Amino acid sequence: MSAKSRFLNSSTFRRDGLAKVRGPLRFTNDLEVPGMHVGRIVRSPYAFADIRGFDVDEAEKLGAVVLTPDDVP
After folding, report:
1. Distance between CA atoms of 58 and 42, rounded to whole angstroms?
2. Do residues 25 and 16 touch, judged by C-beta distance below 8 A?
3. How far is the C-alpha of 45 from the C-alpha of 51, rounded, in Å?
4. CA-based nearest residue to 25, from 34, 16, 33
5. H-state helical runs in 1-73
6. Is 48 helix (H, G, I), strand (E, B) or coil?
7. Residue 25 to residue 18: CA distance in whole angstroms
8. What average pLDDT does the chain have?
9. Measured distance CA(72)–CA(59) in Å, rounded
10. Using one digit for the tens of pLDDT, what is the confidence trace for 5-36?
11. Whole-number pLDDT of residue 1
């Protein structure tokens, strides 16, 4: 029996499974560092659309740093 077929159709014990379910396990998204910046990519909900412009005024009012394709070479 090969190693590949030995694990098919059988359950395996996950050492981190209980900690994930109960909640004490920390994920990367749970980490916070003083002065940390958070980035977000906003995508268009339309698969084939011509983007004519960006309205970033609302985000800039909140103090966000906004990068558009014009800012990235």
Report:
1. 14
2. yes
3. 11
4. 16
5. 3-6, 17-22, 57-61
6. coil
7. 9
8. 83
9. 18
10. 677 777 778 888 888 888 888 888 888 889 88
11. 52
Which of 65, 69, 39, 73 is CA-nearest to residue 54? 69
What per-residue confidence (pLDDT) applies to 4?
A: 62
- In the block, residue with structure tokens 């800012």: 71
What amino acid is encoded at 50 in this protein?
Answer: D
* Closest by CA position to 65, among listed 28, 39, 45: 39
pLDDT band at 67 (very low <50, low <70, confident <90, very high): confident
Confidence class for position 37, pLDDT limits 50, 70, 90:
confident
Using CA atoms, how far apart are residues 68 and 53, in angstroms rounded to an integer? Answer: 10
The position carrying tokens 């980490």 is 31
Sign of CA dihedral 63, 56, 66, 45: positive
**Pair of tokens at residue 28:** 């990367």
